[in-house]
Amino acid sequence: MAATQAEVEALRAELDETNRGVLALYAELDAQADNLRQATELKSRFLAYMSHEFRTPIGAIQSIARILQDQVDGPLTEEQQKQVRFIQTTSAEFADMVNDLLDLAKVEAGRIDVSPAWFEMVDLFSALRGMFKPVITNPDVMLIFEEPQNVPKLFSDDRKLAQILRNFISNALKFTQHGEIRVSARRISDTAVQFAVADTGIGIAPEFHHAIFQDYSQIDSPIQKRLRGTGLGLSLSKRLAEILGGDVAMESEPQKGSTFFVTIPISVVAAPSPAAAERSSR
């Protein structure tokens, strides 16, 4: 009887020690999670601050370049015009990088809200067509917007959807030297619509498929080495799609082109961001 009692006491002591270890582990995990949240918040604040600070000089550079391009103060030589166009192109790329960083900081900080409204796909495609018309300088590439078929009015945030499609189209233009880029929309169920941006570009090797929507992911190719970018466009597109209640996907084969998809609900359920929820609870 005494031996049994001693064994029970030993088991109880061992259990108590295990419980203390588990509690200590939980406390350590909580502390690490809190440190991670603080680090993420600091990173988001830094990105947002630096993005805002960069915008002023970028705007000044773009304004001066426009004045030079318009030859307000006199004609430019052919070489000077070439240099001004280079400044315009570079500053536009820099502005895109800064915008991506700022948007990423807002998403990570939970400060992007969904502002849904009813809109027609025809209107969205028309706006995108007009936006990219002056950008397409390669006569060997055609940008085609298919007429939306069986796509009803959407109740969603058209600005965020347009930003996703702009990222897809911009990437397609970078990596397509010949052929076409085709933008389409189709209803895939009673509740969802899928958009596709298909190109006839260089394609993406299978080993890069898993990482294509990750932060700072870039394709290892001769064309990529000539292009500047943060590698954030596709990652940002994925996060924006998730905010709209949808998701992104891609299909690609080297030398045969790529197709990027975004699927969103016909009617989005606008949930408040964490920041908005915190403000409303005060």
Automatic annotation (TrEMBL):
InterPro entries: HATPase_C_sf, HATPase_dom, His_kinase_dom, HisK_dim/P_dom, HisK_dim/P_sf, Sensor_HK_Regulatory, Sig_transdc_His_kin-like_C. It holds the Pfam family HATPase_c. Coiled coil: none annotated. Its EC number is 2.7.13.3. The keyword Transport does not apply. GO terms for molecular function: ATP binding. It is an enzyme of class 2 (transferase). The keyword DNA-binding does not apply. It catalyses: ATP + protein L-histidine = ADP + protein N-phospho-L-histidine. Keywords: ATP-binding, Kinase, Nucleotide-binding, Phosphoprotein, Transferase, Two-component regulatory system. Gene3D superfamilies: 1.10.287.130, Histidine kinase-like ATPase, C-terminal domain. Residues 49-268 form the Histidine kinase domain. CDD domains: HATPase_EvgS-ArcB-TorS-like, HisKA. This is histidine kinase. It comes from Comamonas squillarum.
